[in-house]
Amino acid sequence: APVAAPAGDAAGADSGAASVTVAVVTPYMANATTKYAIDQFEQYGKAKGWNVTVTDTNADFNLLVSRIEDAVTQQVDAIVLGMGDPAQMTKGLEAAAAAGIPVFGLDAGNGPGVVLNITSDNGQLGQETAHFLAEAIGGEGAVVLFTHDPHPGVRARAEAAAAEFATYPGITVVEKKHIEVPGPVDFARSTTQDLLTAYPNDGDIAGIWAGWDEPALGATQAIEAAGRSGIAVVGIDGTDFARAEIGKGGAFVASIAQDFDGMAQQLAEIIAAYLAGEAPASESVQIPGVLVTAENAQ
Amino acid sequence: MSLFTERMGEVSVVEGMQPLVSLQRLRKRYPGVLAVDDVSLDLYAGEVHGLVGENGAGKSTLIKLLAGATTSDGGSIWVRGRQVHLRTVREANRLGLAFIHQELNLVPYFDAVENIFLGHLYPRHWWGGVDWAALRRRVRAVLDPLGVTLPLTVPVSRLSPGQQTLVSIARALVDKVDLLVMDEPTAALTSQEIEHLFGVVRALRARGVGVLYISHRLAEIFALTERITVMRNGRVVTTQPSSQVSEQRLVQWMTGRTVEALYPPRTPPTALPLLDVRRLSGSFCREISFTLHAGEVLGIAGLIGAGRSELLRLIFGAERVRGGELLLYEKGVPRGLCLRSPAQAYRAGVALAPEERRTQGLLLARPIYENTTLTFLRRFAWGGWWVRRRSELAATQRLGERLALRSRSLRQPVSELSGGNQQKVVLARALAGEVKVLLLDEPTRGVDVGARQEIYRIIGDLKAQGVGVLLVSSDLSELLGVADRLVVLREGRQVATLAAGEASAERVLGYCFGVQPAVPHPTRSQGGGDAGR
Amino acid sequence: MGEMQADSGGARQGAQRWLRLYGTFAGFVAMVGIFALMRPGIFLSPNNLRNITEQVAILAIVATTMTVVMVVGDFDLSVGAMASLSGVVVADLLIQGLGVWPGVAVALLVGGIGGLFNGVLVAYFGLSAFVATLATMTAFRGLALFYTNGSTLFSGIPESFKLFGQGVTLALPNSVWIMAAVWGVTWFVLEQTTLGRRLYAVGGNAQASYLAGLNVRGLRLAAFVLSGVGAALAGVVMTSRLFSAHPTAGEPLMLNSIAAVFLGMTMFREGEPHVLGTLVGVLLLGGMSNGLNILQVNSYLQLVLTGLIILLAVLLSGLARRGE
Amino acid sequence: MGEMQADSGGARQGAQRWLRLYGTFAGFVAMVGIFALMRPGIFLSPNNLRNITEQVAILAIVATTMTVVMVVGDFDLSVGAMASLSGVVVADLLIQGLGVWPGVAVALLVGGIGGLFNGVLVAYFGLSAFVATLATMTAFRGLALFYTNGSTLFSGIPESFKLFGQGVTLALPNSVWIMAAVWGVTWFVLEQTTLGRRLYAVGGNAQASYLAGLNVRGLRLAAFVLSGVGAALAGVVMTSRLFSAHPTAGEPLMLNSIAAVFLGMTMFREGEPHVLGTLVGVLLLGGMSNGLNILQVNSYLQLVLTGLIILLAVLLSGLARRGE
Ligand SMILES: Nc1ncnc2c1ncn2[C@@H]1O[C@H](COP(=O)(O)OP(=O)(O)OP(=O)(O)O)[C@@H](O)[C@H]1O
Ligand SMILES: Nc1ncnc2c1ncn2[C@@H]1O[C@H](COP(=O)(O)OP(=O)(O)OP(=O)(O)O)[C@@H](O)[C@H]1O
Ligand SMILES: [Mg+2]
Ligand SMILES: [Mg+2]
Q1: pTM for the whole thing?
Q2: ipTM summary value
Q3: Rg of chain B on CA atoms, in Å
Q4: Cβ distance D285 to C150 under 8 Å?
C-alpha cells in the first residue's frame, strides 16, 4: 500500500512541491551514461519543483549504503538509486523502509525495498546486439566477449548475448575478457591488440561483442590501427562517441541506445504520482533500447 | 714476533682459568676484503681487555661476529668452554654478552628511557599496562652510577651525539652481563663522562665481569686495561699485558711505523680577521662573540650538550640565528652578514665537517667519490652540468691519499667503510674546494692515531695557507695541542676565551664545570695528553 | 644539568604534544564546526553522528590494523583485496550451509594466511613491502574474482549473519562495537605492552632493534598477520552490512586506510603512526564525506573539496609545528 | 693502502652489479622465454614486440618521471589523475579550436603547475608526500570530472592530433619515440649531470645533502614538477592514442608506475630507483599482460598469475643478492 507523502515532517511548514526532496545516490557517476540519465532525471525533477540531490560514491558500495542512510537521516521524500545493484545495499534499503521513505531504481535492479525499478531490459540489449553481430558476420565465426561481471547489468547483457550466440551453430565464443575499470578504453585497446596477435589471420576472429561502448571503442581502434578487416564490433549504450564511430562505417557496426531520457522522465512521473498517493502498477518498468547502426547513427 | 706473542699470552693468563669467551680462528670476508683474518682471542672474567688497531683493521667486524650481528666465514666461538653458534643478537644476549656498538643504534623517536630499555621486558601494572614510573626508576638506577643526567622525556633524536652515546652505554648496563663489549664508547664523550664511565667499568670488573674495550684514545687503553690486543689488516699482531708496552710500541704495532710528534709545531696566526661573531644567539647558545683570524685555529671546548655544535651550525647558516650578527671579511674588509643556508656558506668560503657522519655527513649508499665531490660538484663537470667521473675519481684519489683513506675502490659505497674511514670521507668533502673558514666538528672522532696525526698536519697546512679553523672537539688534549685560542662554552654561554698560553686542562675543565680554575697559571700540557683521566 | 629540567620538560613536552595534536585535530574540529553551522541540527544530530561512526567502522578496522604495519615501517597494499576475498569466502561458505561462526573463523583464517604470506615475503625474503603487497593485492583480487566468477553473492546468506554489520547493541551498531574492540586492543598492545613498544622500535630503527636483541623479522611478520586478519574482519563486517559479497567491494579500503594513518601521523611530532591519530584520520575522512553530502555539493566538486580539506587540515598541523 | 686496487675493484664491482641485475632481469628473461616457447613465432614476432612497446609507452613515460620523484625519496600518487586531467584539457582546447601545439603546451603547463603545487606542499610546507599527493590526486580527479561533467570528449579533435599517439615514424609508433626521448633525457640527467647527482644525494640523505650545501627543497620541488609534466605528457599521448579524452582514463597509471619503479629498484644492490630498472619493470608488467593475453588465460587467473610472476621475479633477485 502506498504511503502518504511524508512531506510534512521533513521540511516543516513549507507548502507544496517546494518541500519535496529527492535524493539520487549512485556508485557510477564517473560513467558518462549514468551521469546523463541522472542529469536528465534531475532536470525533470527540478521542473516539478523538487529539490533533487545527487550523490556519487565512486564505485564504493559500502559508502553507498552510508549515503542511503544519510538520505534517510535527512528525511528526504524519495530515494533514487542510480544504476547500483540493490542486492548490495539491503541495509540501506531497510533503513529507508523503516523510515517510510520509498526507493526507486533508475536502471538499478529489483529487490526487497525497491518500490519500482525503471530500466532498459539488459537481456534485450545483450540479445539484440548479439543478434545484430551474428547476422553481420553471416552467422559464422569466432566471437570474443568483453565483459565486466562485477557489474550486474553488464553481466546480464553478457549472459543474454552468450545465449543468443549459442543459437547460431556456426558461432563459437572463443574468449571472454574481463575489462578493467577505470581506463576501459585503453585496456580494451591493448587487450584487442593482443587478441589480434593470438589470432593472427583474417577470419580467426569474426566479431567482438562489448558489454558497453567504451571497450567497443578501444577494440575498434585496435582493429583499425592493425589494419585488420573482417572483424565487426558491437557495443551497448549508444553513446555519442559510439554513434560517431558507427557513422564512419568502420569496424564498429552497432550499438544500442538506451532511452535514458525517457527513463528519467517516466521515473519522475511515477515518483510524482507515488508521492501524490498513487501506487505503481508493477515493480518493474522496462524501456526497450533502440538499435543504432550505420543507417541511423547520425 | 709470534713466538714472543705466545709466550706473553701464557704469562698473562691466570693459571687454570677458563676463558669466559674464546674466539678461535675467526674469519670474515667482505667482497674484496678479508676484514677478519684468522683471529683468536681469549677474554677472561674480571679482565678489561683492550683492542686497538688502525681504521679498518677489523675491530668492529670482530665485535659483530661475536654479537651474532653478522655470520663468520670460519672459526668458532666458545663461551664458558662451550662452542656456540650465534645466529642472532638475541642468542648472544642470552649468553650474557652485551654490546655497545660503534655506530649509535637508537630509535630516534623514543625517549632515552625507552631506548635504554630496548630489548628488555617493560615493568607492568596489575592491569597489564606499562608501569612507566617503575620503568623510569629502573633507568635512573642504571644512570646514577654513570653519574650522568640526561633529558629523559625528549626523543633521543633531539639529544646531542654525546648524550646519545650515554644512552647506548646505559642500555648495555640494564641487565647483568658477563662480558661487556664496548666499541669506541668514548669517541663522543668529554672528560667528565669518561671519568664516570671508567668508574662503572672498574666496578663491573670488580664484580667479575669481563670487558672488551676498543678505543683510538690510547691513553684510555692504558688507563683501563690489563691486556691489549693489537689488530692490523684483519689479523691479530700481538696480545700484551698493558703494563709491559709503551705507547710508541703500540702505535708501531698498529701502523707499522712510529708516530712521533702528534701535533705539528704551532705557527702564529695573522692579525687579519676572517670572521667576526658578535653576540650570536641561537635556540640554545647565547651571545657568543669572538673573532677568527686568518691562519688561526680557534678551539671550542665544553661538555656534552654545551652547545658547541649548535654554534658551528649557527655560523654555517644551518640553524636559525635568533640574535647577534656575523661578519665575514674579504682581505680584511667586512663583507656580508648572516649566512642563511649551507649553500650560501659554501659560496662564501665557509665549510663544515659535521659531527654525526652517518646522519649528517654521508650518503651511505653512494660511492666514495660521489660523497667527496658532492658540494663542489660543478668543478668536476663540463659547463657545470655534465659530470666528468674521471676528474672526480682523480680528485678523490688525491684527497684519499692525503687522508690515508683505506678503501677497496673509490666506487665502493661509503656504508662498507669502517667508521674511521667514513669520517675521513666527511673531511675529504670539506677539503675538496677552497675554503677560507673551516668549521670542524669532532674531526678526529673514531680516527686512528696515524690518521689523526695526518689531520693535524692538514690543519697545520691550511693554517699556513691562511685558512681560519674553528675546531670543536671533545678531546681536550687535542684542543690544547692544536688550537691557538680556546673558547669555552658552558650550557650555551661563553664562559672563557683563553690564549694557548693561558689554557691548561685543569683550567679549561674548571670553566667547563663552572668552578673556579684551581691553578691560575698552570703549565701547558702538550702531546698525547690524558684528558681521559 | 638537565635532570631537574627533565620533569618540567616532560610537562612542557606534554603540552607541546597537545598543541601539535591541534593541527590536524583543529582541522577536524573546524570541519565539524563548519558543517554544523551550515546544516544546523542535521550534521550534529545524534542520528547522523551514529551514521558517521557506522559508515567509518569498517574503514576504521582496516586502518587500525594497518597502523600496526606502518608502525613497523611497512605498508600493506593488499588489505582492500583481502577484505573482498574474505567477504566472498564467508558469504560463499554461509550460502553453502556452514554455520555463521565457523564461516567467520575460516574467513579470518584466510586473512591470517594472506598476512602470513605477505609477512614472510617482506620479513624473511626481504622484498620491499610495496612490491610484495602490490603483487599479493593483484593475486588476492584475482582469487576473489575467480572464486565468484565475477558475480555478486547474495542469495542464501542466513539472516543470523546480519549480526556483525547490521545488529545493534546498546544503541550502537555492532560494527561500531567491533571496531571499538579492535581499536582498543590495538591501542593497548601498541602503547601498553612490551610487544607494542618493540613494534615501534622496529619501525624507528630496525637495525638498532636487531642489535638490541629484538626478533625483528618475527615482529614484522606479526604485524602483517595482524593486518591480514584485520582486513578479513573488515571484509566479514562489510559482507554482513551489505548482506552480499562483491569481489571488488573492499578495494576503496586500501588507499583510504593508508591515508587515514598518514593523516593521523601528521598529528605527532615525530611523525610515527599512532592509533589515536588514525582514528582522527578516519573520522576526518568519514565526516568530510558525510558533511559534503549533507551540504549537497556536486559530487565532482566534492572530490576537489575533499582534496583541499585534507591539505588544509594537514597544513594547519604543519604550521603549528613550524611555529614552535 | 687499497688505492691501487681501485680499478680492478671497480671492474669486479661492475660485474657484480650485472650479476645482481640478473635477479629481476632474469625473471624478465625467463618470462619472455616461457611466453616465446609457449607461443612460438607469436610472442617474439616483430609485430607483437611493437605492440608491447606501444602498449607500455604511456606507462613508461609516467614511470620514468616517477622515478625522479622516487630518487629524491618521495612518491607521487597524483600522476594518474594528472594524466586524465591534462588529457581532458588538451582535448577540450583542441575541440575549441586551439592549435595542436599550443594545446599540448597548455596541457603540459597544467602538469607543471600541478607538479609545482605538489612540490611546494611537500618540499616547502613539509607535508608527507603520500598525504599531499593523495589529496591532490583526489582534487585533480574531481577537476577532470568537473571539467568534462563526467563525459567523454571526442568530437571535434583535429586529425592532426593523432600525431602523438597514433603516428608512426621509421616503423615505430610516435608514442614509443616520445617515450624513448623522455627516457633518454631522464637517464642522461640522472646519471650524467650534476643535477641528477644531487637528486640522488637528496634521496640518499636529505640532511647530509643540506649540510653539503645543496638546495634540498628546490631539488625536491623540481622532481615533482618533472613528474607533473611527465604525467601531463602521458595524458596527451593517451588522448591522442584513444582520440578521445575520458576523465578517469589515466587512473591505472598511478599504481602501475610506482610498481614499475619498485620492480626496477629490486635490480640494484642499494635499492635506489633507477631509470634502467624502471624500464625493465615496465616491460615486465607490459610483457606479462600481453603474454598472458596471447596465451588466452582466463582474465581472473591472469590477475593471480600476474601477482605470482611479480613475486617470482623479485624473489629471484632477492636470492641472487643473498647468495653473495
Ligand atoms: N658491510 C661491509 N661490506 C664490505 N666491507 C665492509 C663492511 N663492513 C666493513 N667492511 C670492511 O671491513 C674492514 C674492517 O672494518 P671494521 O669496521 O671492522 O674496522 P674497524 O677496525 O672497526 O675500524 P674503525 O677503527 O675505523 O672503526 C674494512 O676494510 C671495511 O671496509
Ligand atoms: N639539559 C638539556 N635539556 C634539553 N636539551 C639539552 C640539554 N642540554 C643540551 N641540550 C640540547 O643540546 C643542544 C646542544 O647540543 P650540541 O650538539 O650543540 O652540543 P655539543 O656541545 O656539540 O655536545 P656533543 O659533544 O654531545 O656534540 C641544544 O640544542 C639543546 O637543545
Ligand atoms: Mg670500528
Ligand atoms: Mg657536538
Answers
A1: 0.87
A2: 0.85
A3: 23
A4: no
